[in-house]
Amino acid sequence: MWRKGRAGALAMTTPSPHADPMIAPDAPSDLTGKLLIAMPDMGDPRFHGSVVFLCAHSETGAMGLIINKPMPEVSFADMLDQLDIEGREGAPQVPVCYGGPVETRRGFVLHSGEYRGWQDDLLQVDDRFAMTATLDVLEDIANSRGPRQALMTLGYAGWGAGQLEDEIQHNGWLTADASPDLVFGTPMETKWEAALASLGVHPLTLSSEAGHA
What we know:
It is a single chain. By secondary structure, the protein is of the alpha+beta class. The chain has a single domain (30-205), classed as VC0467-like. The protein contains five helices and nine strands; from the N terminus they run βββαββββαβαβαα. The protein has helices at 76-82, 135-142, 163-169, 180-185, 191-197; strands at 34-38, 51-58, 61-66, 96-98, 102-112, 122-124, 129-132, 150-160, 173-177. Strands 1, 2, 3, 4, 5, 6, 7, 8 and 9 form a nine-stranded mixed sheet that branches. The longest helix has 8 residues, at 135-142. It is globular and about 45 Å long.
C-alpha cells in the first residue's frame, strides 16, 4: 500500500500530470492553508460533500487533501501492522481518510505545525499545519513521539494551472480559513457543516452562487 522513497520515506508525490505543487506558493490569490468546501451542486461525485485542506497552491497548480471522508475499512493500527511498524501501547489512533483520487495507494500525514521531525520530507504549510509523507512520522506517532494532532489520508487531490480557480469561479467550491479545531477536532460526519458554519452559512441557504471567505 505504501511505497518507500529515499531514506525510508514515502515519496512526495505531485499531482501528475500537472506541475509540481511543492514549490514555494507565492502566486497572487494564494489559497495555501485554506479549506475548500464542496458546493451541493459539485459536478464531480468524488468530491461531493468534501472539505479539502489545500497544502500548496500557486500559478502552476494546487494540491490538497480531503479531510472528512474516513475509510472505515482501513485503520491506523492495521496500517502499522502492514508496514511492520511497532508501537507503544496506548499510542494515538490517527484517523485515516480518503484524501483524493490521485495516487490512492500513497499516504500523507497532515499534522500540527509544531512537529518538525523530518525536515527533508516535510512541507510546512504555516505555523499551524504541515504535511509529512514518510514512514518515520508513522513510527513517531506509533511511539508517542509524533505531532500533537494528525490525520492520515490515502491519495490526494491535484489541480493544474488555473483549474482550481476555474472551478471556484463556476461555483464548485467555497473557500474558508482553516483552524486546527476544525481540521483535527471536529467529527468527520459534521466537518462539512462546521466548515460552512465558519462562514456563517447554513446548508439549507446555499444557492448556486458561490463566493470567497
